[in-house]
Amino acid sequence: MRLKSCPALLAGAFGLIMSGLASAQLKSAEPLDETADWATRSWQEAPIDLPAMPKAVDLLPFDDSAASTQRFSIDAKSLTLGADDVVRYTLVSVSPSGAKNISYEGIRCQTYERKIYASGRIDGSWSEARNSQWAPIRGLGVNRQHASLAQDYFCANTTIAGTAADMLNRLQRRATLTGELNR
């Protein structure tokens, strides 16, 4: 083959590829919608079952920041990865004075959001959250624990970082995702 015919060959191949893509787009079951939010378009949240209240022996502590006055733990027995790609867990937070809050929550790595499903009552039962909406995870100030869980243990950017067992293993070893990358 001569070098002079290469540009013509490339142009022909490019034309075939482009017409194939256009044809595939026309045959698509869904029309192309440039305004579509692809992260949430076909996603459906799975129904949940509230877990049993956590026991102290099952709590896995994690750090949210050096400046935090709260202590945070995840109940190892409640950590699940749903078919809807939501990491769900029971979070226990303890203030410096010993006040304890328990909540059942979820993190969606794909959209970097969090949701509180229920709060623990003093009698050991759950109270459904009044405002159970997905909210963006913020990495600054109050509620830094969600960013810590997402960035350090559950999510690799916008994808789930392994299985529930992988996440539990990181929490047990207190080995963050960034720490694993820096080894």
Explain the overall architecture.
This protein is of the alpha+beta class. The chain has a domain at 56-176. It has four helices and ten strands; from the N terminus they run αββββββββαββαα. It has helices at residues 6-27, 144-154, 164-173, 177-181, and strands at residues 59-62, 71-75, 80-81, 87-94, 100-108, 113-120, 126-128, 135-136, 155-156, 159-160.
How many helices? The count is 4
How would you spell out the order of helices and strands?
A: HEEEEEEEEHEEHH
Radius of gyration: 23 Å
Shape: globular
Number of strands: 10
First-residue to last-residue Cα separation: 50 Å
Uncertain spans: 1-36
Oligomer: single chain
Largest sheet: 8 strands, antiparallel
Helix content: 25-40%
Strand content: 15-25%
Q: Given the helix and strand composition, which structural class is it? A: alpha+beta
The pLDDT mean sits at: 80
How are the SSEs placed, and which strands pair?
Layout: H1 6-27, E1 59-62, E2 71-75, E3 80-81, E4 87-94, E5 100-108, E6 113-120, E7 126-128, E8 135-136, H2 144-154, E9 155-156, E10 159-160, H3 164-173, H4 177-181
Antiparallel strand pairs: 1-2, 2-4, 3-4, 4-5, 5-6, 6-7, 6-8, 9-10
